[in-house]
Amino acid sequence: MSTPVVLRRLSKKEGQALLRAVRRSPDPVARKRAACLLALASGESLVRLARTGIASASYARKIVHAFDAEGLASLGAHWGRGRPRTFDDTIQQQIVDVVRTPPHQAGLPFSVWSLPKLRAHLMARKMVSTISVSTLHRLLCEAGMSLQRTKTWKQSTDKNYARKKSKSSSVTRRRRRAAG
To answer: What is the number of alpha carbons within 13 Å of residue 46 lying toward its C-beta?
Structure first.
């Protein structure tokens, strides 16, 4: 049989803070822990507490031990922030710089970046060992950029293309629409 758990005497400030947490806390974990501590402080036993459904006896023990060790800081949820970032800001900036340069300037045979093409290029240049298309999309969104789906079209390699194009459009006339 386990040893009985006795909650230490609460100060007036702690009691008020627990009551405030039960009534107003947006965090359901903090509300439940505060309710459990208030019930134990009012003389409720662990067995009765488990019967009321507030918390099981083992969970109440953990709450009491954490409260004795940490005080009111033990009320909040202690969730982690998740997995640490794989790509730091310098790598993200390098990826953004690659996206801002047209692919043909890097000697690639296409004119517009797509996420799979960008992924393959980054891995071929060993800027990243591996990266998923969704992570690449998220990194670009964080930088305020997005790659749009494009229609394929041919681009001239002629250096005088813009001059020739503007000259030919002034020569051709618009057709008049037939009456109908």
So the answer is: 15
**Token pair in block for residue 95:** 């990826």
Alpha helix (H) ranges present in the chain? 12-24, 28-41, 46-52, 57-70, 89-100, 115-124, 133-142, 161-171
Domain ranges of the chain: 12-74, 89-151
Q: Which value, in Å, is the radius of gyration of the alpha carbons in the chain?
A: 33
Q: Are 33 and 74 in contact (CB under 8 A)?
A: yes
3-state secondary structure of 125: coil
User: In this predicted model, what pLDDT tens digit does every residue of 47-83 receive, in sequence order?
Assistant: 888 888 888 888 989 999 999 888 888 888 766 677 8
Tokens, residue 125: 């240049």
Residues 124-136: pLDDT tens digits?
Answer: 999 999 999 999 9
Question: For 175, how many CA atoms within 13 A lie in the half-sphere containing its CB?
Answer: 3
How far apart CA 57 and CA 2 sit, in angstroms, is: 10
CA distance 21 to 138: 36
Tokens of 152: 């394929």
